[in-house]
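Recall the central idea of this unit: under ordinary conditions, the amino acid sequence of a chain determines the structure it adopts. In this exercise we apply that idea directly, starting from the sequence alone.
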Amino acid sequence: MLKKKITIAMAGAALAVSAVSCKYKVGQDSSSVSATAGVTVMACDESFQRIMEQEINVFEYQYPNATILSRFLPEQQCIDSLLHTNNTKLAVTSRPLTDAEMRYLELRKRQPRSKMVAVDAIAIIANKDNPVNEISVSDLSKILSGEITEWKWVEPGNKSGDIDIIFDYNGSSTVRYMTDSIMDGHPFGKNVFAQNSNAKVVQTVSQRKGALGIIGVSWISSDLKGVRMSTEELSEASQKNDTTNLGFSPDIKVLAVTAAGQLPGEGKKPYQAYIFDGSYPLYRPIYLTVTGYKNATQSGFFTFVTGFAGQKLIQLTGALPAAMHPRIVNVE
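Accordingly, the structure predicted from this sequence is:
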């Protein structure tokens, strides 16, 4: 059932992660804290939860004395938590901190460092029974604004009925991206809804023929065999130098997207190769920001995510690692 309609409002929540602090290990000796041992707190944009959970699981598997306590929040709340809550040492967002935000942390001797760790595609998904296979950025903008409300105006003869746009959360980075990059800051129409869960976006689209979902590619990616890897298998895979061939969830249809200037039939799906060469038009960066001294647990996790193993794990999610170049293999 469709949930509340999207409203673009980001309420600051400086204490959003403060509840996590109660989970700290009691009586932990500071002398035992290092880059691979200790406890630290991370605030992560909800859109990137699947990516970062995988990073945390493997990091903790490889370093059993390290614990990353994570909260998955709207992007602005992650930034507010990093700035104003001393317990929060890491933040994962779709934008870098501004110069003013970096200075704020520096003045408080928080020693901030930030790096782009990945590029995430925004996937456009439809119901499997909907005959549509491709959508243009122009039509997508018109659907979001409410100018186009039925599938027959996207594709003559398409009888899938009314179009309902399905997002993840109010105030998510995915909403912000579509507002800024596709809508030029203009408001959404009345046919746009939030589900308060990325998993529910996929579920709703799989159940409603007229639904059109907008979601980060990591939420719909899988290996072509459809096998879910254990943490041990992921740890082993993160050390290998091969390129994994990824497919998409069989529960929904992933649409090709036609950029401005492209002809019908020239659209691309959000495969890593097309994210890399820019031919897939909907993508945004992922930044990891860390504070504190370089031998702390949060710095160890920062080094892990930005290093070879962490970057390979990102590759396994369908996002494009910042430090790797994909091979173009069997993407169609």
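The chain has two domains: 34-118+284-321, 120-283.
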